[in-house]
Specification:
By secondary structure, the protein is an alpha/beta fold. It folds into 2 domains: 148 residues, Aspartate Aminotransferase, domain 1, CATH 3.90.1150; 274 residues, Type I PLP-dependent aspartate aminotransferase-like (Major domain) (Aspartate Aminotransferase, domain 2, 3-Layer(aba) Sandwich), CATH 3.40.640.10. The protein contains 15 helices and 17 strands. The chain has a 7-stranded mixed beta sheet, with helices on both faces. A 4-stranded mixed beta sheet has the order 1-2-3-15. Strand 8 and strand 9 form a beta hairpin. The longest helix is centred in the C-terminal third of the chain and has 20 residues. The structure holds pyridoxal-5'-phosphate (PLP). Pyridoxal-5'-phosphate binds next to helix 4.
Length: 442
């Protein structure tokens, strides 16, 4: 019996306790949380320091409305993230989720252009098979076809989509990387022209695409060329690092590995590591100045923005990441995870692609490697992998619809930044067993 409306019809096991990389359920099972939920639990579970920071802040001052007061955890969190103004980002704004962060980013882009006297800019361009959130604005802007499907008729028409940079699936056989890049950039340029370049507010993209396609990195040079087009047409570049940011891919910001700077960066999951619901945006100096020289503030308030307890949790998470050099551990354990996956699955006939960066890796499944044909979606291979993992004490993040929202299966592993070499080896071993068991059933 449950009165909770769960995600699917089934009632999931009840998780009661978390400890390091493990989650424990009320029926006595211990499960490795090998994807930190949806790449959230970057410090693992049960971190005492973060729990104490949450408790202390809740006791000292749980809430003060940001229309009247600032609070120290929010100030300190913004400072730790931005003290060295990475990529020219100078101010932070905090909310409670990734979707809200993307909503705020889009509305800030709109307000920026009003402030600088370009009110005709009303449109965004994003990429198919990229996710920016579940709320109506973020869903409308994003390209997750599966999640959009039911809601198409009520989604705003202010957003358009172009092709993703997804070489494994969409680079043609007779195309070089350079030709594929040229084709993508040409398509983006044509879309700017079609809309009217001076009507576009922003291009919106995940530097490493997360759950929708499974850890897809762009070809080298893609983001630099995207940035150049945005600059040519005066549009902003919004990078959604909700899943891939905050150290997940081996650098604090995923854009560092693309050698571009965003105008607005969206952050969430690894920001607070799941200890509190928190997301936010990091904002380039020129946007901050435009607001300061114009209307003065950001016309986008939420009751729980910069929530003191959420900010206190994220502040402690960010301190620990820095003090314990956990981004370096992401790099080292990421290399181990990559080679473990390659060793176990590199020659597997049903695994077409092994891809990712840092501690953010995915396997994409095919009926055979040559044709890259996908499994019949009605077989629900991704759900079978999830179930087979759970029976072996491994929680992963599998998804279907990898290619177009309907076809394709992949599974993500995104272990906590605290993972040890032994943890990584166990994850690869259990994943291997789960994959074999699931494949036997289809
Ligand atoms: N953007 C990206 C890249 C995401 O992966 C997600 C969530 O998975 C979101 C936005 C939405 O975040 P949330 O579920 O916290 O609203």
């Amino acid at each position: 019996m449950t009165r909770v409306l769960h995600r699917s019809g089934a009632i999931p096991p009840v998780a009661v306790r978390g400890e390091g990389i493990y989650l424990h359920t009320d029926d006595g099972r211990s499960i490795i949380d090998a994807s930190g939920g949806a790449a959230v639990a970057c410090l693992g579970h049960g971190n005492r320091r973060v729990a104490d920071a949450v408790g202390q802040q809740a006791a000292a001052m749980a809430y003060a409305h940001t229309g009247t007061f600032s609070n120290q955890p929010a100030e300190d969190l913004a400072e730790i993230l931005l003290h060295d103004e990475p990529g020219g980002l100078t101010r932070a704004w905090f909310c409670s989720s990734g979707s809200e962060g993307n909503e705020a980013a889009i509305k800030l882009a709109r307000q920026y252009f009003l402030e600088i006297g370009q009110p005709q800019r009303t449109r965004t361009i994003a990429r198919r098979q990229s996710y920016h959130g579940t709320t109506l604005g973020a869903l409308a802007a994003g390209g997750n076809m599966m999640r959009r499907a039911n809601y198409e008729p009520i989604l705003s028409q202010a957003h358009s989509l172009v092709s993703p940079c997804f070489a494994y699936r969409f680079k043609q056989e007779d195309e070089t990387d350079a030709q594929y890049l040229d084709r993508l950039i040409e398509e983006l340029d044509v879309e700017f022209q079609r809309l009217g370049p001076d009507t576009v507010m922003a291009f919106l993209a995940e530097p490493v695409v997360g759950a929708t396609t499974g850890c897809v990195t762009a070809l080298p040079g893609y983001f630099q060329r995207v940035r150049a087009i945005c600059d040519r047409y005066g549009a902003l570049l919004i990078l959604d690092e909700v899943m891939c940011g905050m150290g997940r891919t081996g650098t604090m910001h995923a854009w560092e590995q693309e050698a571009v700077f965003p105008d607005i960066q969206v952050i969430a999951k690894g920001l607070g590591g799941g200890y509190q619901p928190i997301g936010g945006i990091l904002i380039a100096g020129r946007i901050v100045h435009a607001l300061a020289d114009g209307s003065g503030g950001f016309l986008h308030g939420q009751t729980y923005q910069a929530h003191p307890v959420a900010c206190a949790a994220a502040l402690e998470v960010q301190r620990i990441i820095r003090e314990d050099h956990l981004v370096e551990n992401v790099q080292a354990m990421g290399r181990r995870l990559e080679s473990g996956l390659q060793e176990r699955f590199g020659n597997h006939r049903h695994i077409g692609d092994i891809r990712g960066r840092g501690l953010f890796w995915a396997l994409e499944f095919v009926t055979d490697r040559g044709s890259k044909q996908v499994f019949d979606p009605t077989l629900k291979l991704n759900e079978r992998i999830k179930a087979a993992g759970l029976t072996r004490g491994l929680a992963t993040y599998p998804m279907g619809g990898t290619i177009d929202g309907k076809r394709g299966d992949h599974v993500i592993v995104a272990p906590p930044y605290i993972a040890t070499a032994a943890d990584i080896d166990t994850i690869v071993e259990r994943l291997g067993d789960a994959v074999e068991a699931a494949l036997k059933g289809v």
